[in-house]
Amino acid sequence: MITVQDLYVTYDKRTPALRGVSLDFHDGEFVGIIGLSGSGKSTLLKTLNGLVSPSKGKVFVEDKDVSRLKGKELRDLRRGIGFVFQEFNLVDRSSVLENVLIGRLGYQSSFKSFFGVFQDEDYRLAEEALETVGLKEKTFERGDQLSGGQKQRVAIAKTLAQEPRVILADEPVASLDRNSGKAVMDTFQRIQQKYGISIIVNLHDVDLARKYCHRLVGLKNGKILFDQKTEEISDDDITGLYS
Amino acid sequence: MQKRVLGILITAIIASTLLIGCSNEEEVLTMGFVPMRDGEQLIESLEPLEDMISEEMGITVEAFTATNYVGVVEGLGSGQVDFGFIPPFAYVLANAESEARVSLTVLNASGESSYRSQFLVREDSDIEDFEDLYGKTLAFVDPSSTSGYLFPGAHLYDLGIDIEEDITYLYSGGHDQSLQLLLSGDVDAAVTFVDVRERYKDDFPDAMEKTRVLGYTMDIPNISVTISDSMDPETEARLQEALIKIADTEEGAELLAELFNIHGFVVAQDRDYDIIRDTAKTMNVDLSNQ
Amino acid sequence: MMTLRDYIAKKKKKNRIWFFGILLFWAVTAYGVNFDLFRIISGLPDMFNLLGRMFSPEFSYIREAMPRLLETIEMALVSTTLGVLIGVLIALFTAKNTTLHPIIPKIIGPLLTFFRTIPNLIWAAILVTIFSVGKFPGMIALTITAVLITVKLLREYIETLNKNLLNGVESVGGSKIQVLRFAVLPTIFEHSLSVYFIVLEINIRSATILGLVGAGGIGQILWRDLNHLRYDNLATLIILLFLTILIIDFISVTIRKNLKKFYIPRTSIASFKLQQQKKWGGIIALLILGFLWLFFSLDITAERLIVGLGSGRDIILRMVQIDLSYIPRLIEGLLESVHIALFATITGGVGAVVLSYFTAYNTAPSPIVAVILKGVVNLLRTFPPIIVAIIFFRGVGPGPLAGAMALGIYTLGVMTKLYSEVIESAGTSIQQGIMVTGSTKLNSYRYGILPQTFPNFISLILYRLESNIRTSTILGIIGAGGIGTLLSTNITWRNWERVGLLILGIALLMIAIEKISERIRKRLI
After folding, report:
1. What domain range is A22 assigned to?
2. What is chain C's percent helix, strand, coil content, to nearest 5?
3. Strand, coil or helix: A219
4. C245 and C347 both lie in a single domain
5. B24 burial class (0-12, 13-18, 19+ CB within 10 angstroms)?
6. Model ipTM?
7. Which domain, by its residues, includes C431?
8. Is residue C4 part of a domain?
9. Does any CB of chain B come closer than 8 Å to the CB of residue C399?
10. Rounded to whole angstroms, how far apart are CA atoms B144 and B149?
């Protein structure tokens, strides 16, 4: 459903982040992208939903060229793609419920949502999403009263409220301790199994990646080093990636 | 080594800063000029007057302008300002505060040492007499204005109209603003100098036709030349003499008239200003506690 | 490779250059304002004489002053509420990172700076022409200042927000408006609240200036008493203003401290929905109430408004035809104003760094010292600069020195208050980090808090410089030099073409200062 063709991204006209990346993502996959920091993982993920524009090459999401989309079309595309950030990116001063409702914004008119008017359906979906990530009892607390792991699960609930086909996660556990990280990865796994939503996740922790992902893509200096099923990856591949 | 250089430099900078101004020990007279707002034109530069007085007296005179008199009155009180051209009410305040003396009164274009202010109403107004002002709205200029507040206010009191009880009033901030308020219908009457309509005819070309004069106040002494108590009588006499002499020369008279709307000086006595004190008293301005 | 020795030498050199640079700069401005310590010292007795006359406040006067004070508070409250609400909206749409289109800040930014430079006196002169005298034009003038200050303070804050926060909403397919509403607005809420109180205080103080043009309130009687040299009454008014500002400060601190307590967790979706409706209903009601209040304080007819708009247009049309022959006087005046403002800003700023150490609770030698100094500092900034200028005028005579000293003292008060608050909020952990090494409080200030909060200090001081230039325009009316003397005389004489040129000159200067301070800030932060 997502096709990446010969993608180049250069920041500030000088520093290259991606140098000719081509690959496909399919429905219902759980893909891990691994590599050192600075290898281009984050950039790759952000080009998939148009947060970063490529300097060369193309990204197709369901046959639509992402770099050509603008305004309403781009927003419609993003609505169908969940994005989870390393730093959660919650609005700390809003309640958990409000944060999850943000996931419904792609379905609202700007005017109505400005006054915080949501439909009953939106509330139902938000509640359901919070239940899925196991945080229903925190619905009315303020964002800044949660722990890091809880915040990340709220962020996942937010993307679930979008009713996405795919969730992109950029280092979702890098700022968390081991146990919280595990809880977050478990949540992803549950979502992938229950709803069939594909998950594409950047990780620098290889053990976690091997444990949860079905397919691993290794990035090094903006190029793909390997792209294989998890069980086919050898220790040498990994060593090569981190050397 | 470096530390010492540093220390010397700092001392040098600070010392040179502190010593600025200490070098000129020669006597300088400081003159403040608070223009009456009924002047024909804006006094742009005091330099010509400075030069004339300096030359005549043989003492350097440095002059400055202020639109409000409070600073000058305080300066006269402390001796920081040696003499000033200030409005009559400002003189009375300065005298009450610090024994500052009036030396001269300025003569206006008609050769008088006093002027009056006028009550204006609209041409089509039903106000024919001061009696008709009861219950009406009146624009004063501001509470510091002799011609725009004190005298007209006292005038009304003398006619039996209590401005606090019998009329509504407001301060417009300027003689021109008062005229404007009257023309726009915000107030029923306005007090201004004579004649604001002539002075601002470019701004309000129809003012002459659209308004008429209801009446005039008593005579108000003109702008005064007030001397600080710290000036010695001998210098004061020289200054008095110099100013009168300047106004007598053809060249000086022309310059004074053209640039400052001054048409001569007469020697003034403190008692000439008793009328201001009485007026201030009527207007409930307390001059005693300064 | 840089050795440690090189590093130390370089660092020392840098500190020395800084120190010298500031000192030299100060010396130049001191020369520009004819600074003369001997003159100030020898003028002290005269200054104390005037201060002494102020030390006998007339308390029976409170009965007359109270209704006027309430009128001022009413004006300030209405105009601040309206101004901040409008200002928040404009700030959202003109911050570089949240604007709908990158061209908007480029156009609106300089335009707002231009409007901000127009002194209150000019606003009032135009507004009085249009709307007649009274509360209404005063409130409009205050609302305009409130909008402009809010936009300035908030826009800078919004521009420092993390890009991630905005991405969080953009990545779900939210529109730019939705980003503003759901990510930015909740985040800036607390900051907006403190901006509200800052603006409220500024407006109460500005109301004293508006008394000059018949806008009513406490300014009117303050101006009258000053002109009648009734310093006893003046002292009473200053005490009233002082108390008002203290109360505002207290309310502001209390609300901000307890903001989290005000957050009421809901228990069901239904009650959450109801709360949302109430919240927005409340904000809209507040806006409508503000406009209605404004509207009802306007007691003129439609015909009068049309006449007024006509004369207002005439004035503005004449201001646009700037009188270029006046440029030499303009430059002369601006130069003096710059000297006054720079001298005041540097003197007050350096003084504030020292005084803040004794005023902030966490660095002061004892809490009692801090409390006493906080009182002094509040008193310093309540004294209207024009009155302080008159005191100095009495001591040192005419010229720029009196204005420069008055502004310097005002700057010292404002900067100490703001900076000591920065120290209090940022200090403790850094301070502890240094104190555990066995160092003194003073050293923890010098090597920990000061470097850490220096960027904040620079931001504050640069903003102060801008307001000092604006305030110095008012001081001109008593003969304290600078562009203000020219401005006030030309307004009195209705030389609008010259007023236009003066405003343009001030605006260009301010825009230049803003550009330079942006550079400095970027380099330091």
Report:
1. 2-242
2. 85, 0, 15
3. strand
4. no
5. exposed
6. 0.84
7. 26-55+321-525
8. no
9. yes
10. 7
* B117-122/B211-216 β-pairing: antiparallel
| Closest CA relative to residue C326, chosen from C472, C198, C467, C486 | C486
Q: Considering only CA atoms, which of A234, A224, A230 is closest in space to residue A41? A: A224
Verify whether the Cβ–Cβ distance C178 to A93 is below 8 Å: no
d(CA A1, CA A159): 18
Digit-coded pLDDT (tens) for C319-331: 889 888 889 989 9
Comparing CA positions, the residue from B228, B227, B136 lying closest to residue B186 is: B136
Chain C residue at shortest CA distance from B202: C494
Query: Hey, how many other C-beta atoms are within 10 angstroms of the C-beta on C524?
Result: 11
**Nearest neighbour of B72 by CB, restricted to C37, C213, C479:** C479
The rounded radius of gyration (Å) of the Cα atoms in chain A is 18
CATH architecture of the domain covering B117-218: 3-Layer(aba) Sandwich (3.40)
Contacts with A130 (C-beta within 8 Å, 6 or more apart), sequence order: A96, A97, A100, A136, A138, A139, A154, A157
Tell me how crowded residue B243 is: count the other CB atoms within 10 A of its CB. Answer: 26
Query: How far out from the chain centre does Cα B172 lie?
Result: 18
- Tens digit of each residue's pLDDT (9 = 90 or more) over C157-211: 888 888 878 888 888 877 888 888 888 888 888 888 889 998 999 888 887 777 7
Task: Tell me the pairing of strands B220-221 and A166-170.
Answer: unpaired
d(CA C309, CA C156): 35
- Check if the beta carbon of residue A8 is closer than 8 Å to that of residue A213: no
Instruction: Say whether the A–B interface has 3 or more Cβ pairs within 8 Å.
Output: no
**Distance from the first to the final alpha carbon of chain A:** 32
Range 120-179 of A in CB contact (< 8 A) with C: 123, 127, 140-142, 155, 158-159, 162
Instruction: Tell me the domain boundaries of chain B.
Output: 27-111+221-273, 117-218
* pTM score: 0.83
Over C472-486, what HEC string results?
HHHHHHHCCCCHHHH
CA distance C408 to C216: 29
Residues of chain C with Cβ-Cβ distance to A53 below 8 Å are none
Sheet hosting strand A56-61, strand order edge to edge: A15-25, A2-11, A56-61, A64-65
The shortest C-alpha distance from A216 to chain C (Å) reads: 24
User: Is residue A167 classed as helix, strand or coil in its secondary structure?
Assistant: strand
SS3 call for B6? helix
